[in-house]
Amino acid sequence: MNDVLKLTSARALRDLMARHGFQLKKQYGQNFLVDERVLDAIAAASGLTHSDGALEIGPGAGVVTRRLAERAKSVVAIEKDRSLAPVLAESLKGCNNVEIVYDDVLEVDLARIWKHFAEAGCEHVAVVANLPYYITTPILFHLFDAGVDWARMVVMVQREVAQRMAAPPGGKTYGALSVAVQYRADVQTVARVSPGSFLPPPDVESAVLCLERRLTTPVAVTDEAAFFRVVRAAFATRRKTLANALSTGLGIPKESALTLLARTGVDGGRRGETLTLAEFANIANTLVQPS
Q1: How far apart are the first and last CA of the chain?
Q2: pLDDT surpasses 50 at 11
Q3: May I ask the CATH architecture of the domain 224-288?
Q4: What is the pTM of this model?
C-alpha cells in the first residue's frame, strides 16, 4: 500500500519515470493519475473481490494496477507503450497476480484473456480503464462487441463524453453513444475529476463512470444489427427530421421512411435526440417485420 501512496505523489511519479528514462508521449494520450481520492473511488466502484478478475486498459505507471491487484484474484493489464515496461516492473514489484500484455487493445483477442480468467477460477471480471480521449468510443465498442462476459466497467473519460454516455433523451448531449451504452449497461457517475488529478494535467475535465452490465436488455429487440442501424441513421444528421434522417441513413425513399414511422406511431417530424430506447426498438422491430 505504501508504494501506491507514494506513486500518487507527482514528485514520486516523476522520479520513477526519470529513473527509467521514460518520456510521456502525447500520441498515446498519457496522463497518469496522482489523486488518492480518485484512486479510492475507482477501486471501490470496481466491486472486485479476491475471487474476481480485472482487465485494466492503459495501466500507465501502474498506480491503479497495484490497487486492483490488492483486491482481485487475477489482473491482466493491456498497455500499448512498451517503453513503460521498466516503469511497470518497478511499480508492480511483488504483484504476482498481474500480467502485462504489451499490445493495442483494439487488436487484442479478448476471448483469450477471458479464457485466462476462467482458468484462474475468477467468478466475475471487471474492466477498469483510463481511456485515451481520442479513442474512447472505439475501445468501448470493441469491448461491447467482443462477446465477453464483463460484470462492470469503471472508465475514466473526458467529462463531455461521460455526459453523453449518461444523457437522457431530449438534450443535445443525447446521441448514438448514449443509446449504445444505456442499452447494455446501467450508467452511474462515480467521480468528477479535475485536470490537477493527473500528471501532466490534461486540458479538459474528466469523470469516472461505472457501467453495470444489464442482465437483460431494457427493451425487446428482434434484430440488434437493425436496431443500431436505425440509431446511427437517426443521429447521423441531427438537424434533419427523423423521416429525412432515416431515409438518408437507411437508404430508403422518404415515403418508405414515413410509412415505417406511421406503423410505429412515431411522428416523422421529430428528431433522433427525442426518441427513447423503446421507440428506437419499436422502429427497428417494425423495419425487419414483413409489411
Answers
A1: 64
A2: yes
A3: Orthogonal Bundle (1.10)
A4: 0.92
